[in-house]
Amino acid sequence: MALVLTSVAISQPKVDKDEYYVVIKKSDFTLTVYNRNHVWVARYPVVFGSKDLGDKMIAGDRKTPEGTFHIVSKKVHSKWCRFLALDYPNAESYEKFNERKAHGVISPNASIGGGIGIHGTWPNEDFAVDNYQPWTEGCISTKNEYIIELYNLLPVGTKVIIEP
């Protein structure tokens, strides 16, 4: 008589998009996760694309946008470990962008950009986060071990607030 072993997949309970929210404080280089009761859950160091921590103005300026966004997709990334895509530009972003154009703050021919997300670092380059090196094109980057934790914790739809 043969012994047959079967494996049973143990699934994680589905987390509601409103279970957590994220606050990124550019001036503190932090990403903090809160639960729905506004209790601090985790905090991670992050870096951005420019030493100028001002709000994103136009495509290619390497600045990180400020405002309220949501995670719209998640994927394992060949370069940056994991990628949590944000819904930038959204209606709030377009409103600020168009207002800046109307007031001559930016060129009438400028474009708003896109492709902003939260991701890891290049393989073996977590030191960029330790050294607060700006290296992205405007995304938020953290250490690979941290982005894996965030990827596993935060569902699509999670609110992300980026503050100055």
Automatic annotation (TrEMBL):
Pathway: Cell wall biogenesis; peptidoglycan biosynthesis. Belongs to the YkuD family. GO terms for biological process: cell wall organization; peptidoglycan biosynthetic process; regulation of cell shape. Keywords: Cell shape, Cell wall biogenesis/degradation, Peptidoglycan synthesis, Transferase. This is L,D-transpeptidase-like protein. InterPro entries: LD_TPept_cat_dom (IPR005490), Transpep_catalytic_dom (IPR038063). Pfam families: YkuD. The active site is at H119 (proton donor/acceptor), C139 (nucleophile). PANTHER family: L,D-TRANSPEPTIDASE YAFK-RELATED, LD-TRANSPEPTIDASE. Residues 20-163 form the L,D-TPase catalytic domain. It comes from the Bacteria. It comes from Hydrotalea sandarakina. The keyword Cell membrane does not apply. GO terms for molecular function: carboxypeptidase activity; transferase activity. PROSITE patterns: LD_TPASE. The lineage of its organism: Bacteria, Pseudomonadati, Bacteroidota, Chitinophagia, Chitinophagales.
